[in-house]
Amino acid sequence: MEVVDITDADNRTVTVYFSQSTKLPVRQTFRRRNPLYKDFDTEVSVFAKFRDVGGGAKWPFDIRRERNGEKIFEMYSDSVTINKNLKDDLFSLPSNLKILPKAK
């Protein structure tokens, strides 16, 4: 495994484990403080059964998420399509859109 820690501007860190042979993510862990109990919650995502979904992109067809060892989400995919007939204007904001101020 190749282990990579990714830290954002708020000092939150996600640890991602990549397969050494395929370079695809296999596991991801994230810890955050539980505001009620003041301890830490650990969330783990596990990715499996990667398949080519077009254009050389690989996507996990099995995804499982756990919080503190308890399964909270699981998804199995039969088929996935990526970037199918998407136009550039889909990602453009209208010029008259009001932008919210940045958080302080």
Structural features, described:
By secondary structure, the chain is an all-beta fold. The protein contains no helices and six strands. Strands 1-2-3-4-5-6 form a six-stranded antiparallel β-sheet, with no helix packed on it. It has strands at 2-7, 13-18, 25-33, 40-52, 58-67, 70-76. 0% of the residues lie in helices and 49% in strands. It has one domain (2-91). The protein is extended, with a radius of gyration of 18 Å.
In short:
The protein is mainly beta and 104 residues long. The chain has no helices and 6 strands.
Question: Which features does this protein show?
Answer:
104 residues, mainly beta, 6-stranded antiparallel β-sheet, extended
SSE topology sketch:
Blueprint: E1 2-7, E2 13-18, E3 25-33, E4 40-52, E5 58-67, E6 70-76
Antiparallel strand pairs: 1-2, 2-3, 3-4, 4-5, 5-6
Q: What is the quaternary state of this protein?
A: single chain
Number of strands: 6
Order of helices and strands: EEEEEE
Radius of gyration: 18 Å
What is the average per-residue confidence, as pLDDT, rounded to a whole number? 92
Strand content: over 45%
Tell me the domain tally.
Answer: 1
Strand order of the largest sheet: 1-2-3-4-5-6
Terminal-residue CA separation = 39 Å
Sheet having the most strands = 6 strands, antiparallel
